[in-house]
Amino acid sequence: MEFNRMRSFHVVCALVAYFLSVNAQNTTAGSTTDPDLNTTRCTNFCAGTNATNSTDLFICGDPRLGPVQLPTALPLDGIVGGESTYHRFGGVCPGEFLAQWTNATTGSFVYPPFEGYTLTTSGQPGILNISLSVGTLLDRFGSEYGSYTSPAGLPYAQRSLPPPNLNAPPGGMYPYNYQVYIVTRTFKVQAGPIAAWFGQQGLGLQFLMPSSVRDLVDTGYLTRLNQTADPLW
């Protein structure tokens, strides 16, 4: 049994290494100047958005477009900030981005099919059932009521998440809605490469938990990492 668990974990590590190498060959790091806020192309920058007066927090005051300021400190700077490959709207204007990725009636984001996994050549989601070993570091952008995590430190662009996953209340406990966990009891998950979506490249690795992250914390399978005490984990 132990051998099978270790073999599964090594498969996951190999998948991570492969997909990171693919993306390294096909992307370049973003500059410290945020190109997504450049109004040269988008002369009516906020057209097609739900513009409000909350422009100090959200782009165009629309929470769906994410925070105005991206991280500038490690480790988040390299994951989703100016030193990362992340471009919020995939090269289009904010209104165009929302028109492409949200429901025209409800305004809510439309998420990918097949639970967000990349499809194989046979048209099936590429999924492995594996066990996560004690000591594995995971992270998540979003509340603990969700069930998806990734290997800690995975670039945001490879997660295919929409901009509002970065929204967090000012002065909140978890800046940019980012939380890190360590596996404290072995458990099984679904694992596979992430489909490109929301104008992002995807191809990172995602884990679909057997229950919500909050449940796994409450039952002792995951422990929150104190990012204040150990900001670089």
UniProtKB/TrEMBL annotation:
It holds the Pfam family TNT. Residues 132-224 form the TNT domain. GO terms for molecular function: NADP+ nucleosidase activity. Residues 1-24 form the signal peptide. It comes from the Eukaryota. Keywords: Signal. The keyword Zinc-finger does not apply. The keyword DNA damage does not apply. InterPro entries: Fungal_surface_NADase (IPR053024), TNT (IPR025331). PANTHER family: TNT DOMAIN-CONTAINING PROTEIN. This is TNT domain-containing protein.
